[in-house]
Specification:
- There is one protein chain.
- The chain is α/β, with parallel strands linked by helices.
- A four-stranded mixed β-sheet has the order 9-10-11-12, with helices on both faces. Strands 1-3-2 form a three-stranded antiparallel β-sheet. A three-stranded mixed β-sheet has the order 4-8-7.
- Helix 5 runs antiparallel to helix 6 and helix 6 packs across helix 8.
- The two termini are 34 Å apart.
Amino acid sequence: MTPNTEHPIVVRRRRDPGGVGLAERRLHALIEGGGVHRIVAGSFALGDEWRRLTPIQQHFVRVLEVADRSRKPQVFMGAAAAAVLGIDRIGAWPHRVEVRIARTSGGRSSGAVARRALGFDGVDLLEWRGHLVTSPAQTAIDVAAEAHFTAGVIAFDQALWRRRDGGALTTISEIERVLAAQSRRGIGRAAAALDFSTELSDSVRESEARVLIDRMGFPTPELQREFRLTGGRVARADFYFPDFDHIGEFDGTGKYLDPALLRARTPQQVLLEEKDREDELRRVVQAFSRWRTAAHRDPGMLYDILSAAGLPSRLPRPRRGALR
């Protein structure tokens, strides 16, 4: 694959000819008021443009700024590599950009850069903008080695996602090859997350839901099961429990708000289309469950939604926070 190099917004830098063109006091006031956003020291973007970026895009811009300002080649890893490659996550992205350095290096972290003395033995790397970035397989392994199980599964699912534009970033066999060459701490944690991973989760929230469904003791669902609707249309369900003829779906807000997903339709049009799709699906299965992000923050809510629709669990209802 070819790592991303395109800058999504205009960045203004003090070092460029003409610089930012504002006195320090005026610039500080604009930052405080939200009119300007400081990306890293000396680099700025208009506040409205910055806020329109997704969190992964915002971190990618930080990585670009660190890369372009560096006097020597860097090896970007972890969240920095994930932002470059398009491996998304749930939760906040770090403020500092992670780079990998030799185990014996005396380099220290700075305000913009987090230097990780993990060495390079067995590390899989790609060239990027005169620097190096860990490969998709290596990046997912690095994230999973340091994160909790769900975040590791999300990283692997994102790297393996079959329906991604341009295809999956890597394969299970490639990840297994890179994993076998690793000696860093957390490899066992990464291996467990890989065992649970799939190429079929279409979003980070679907990956998160899959982990929650398993941990709450519900049956293992089929992913992206297709159903034929009236007029020959085909609908793909997030989760399908065949023994109970039960569809489960995570209802994200992106389909109603993201211009790329709206495809020139209004949010109201998409809402009505989604309602019609759900009504048709309900007519072809015995049970249908739908939930939103709040049910992931409080898994007891998701447990109640699935149970109320007749899906059995082998475990009692979880207490709030018990599955984190």
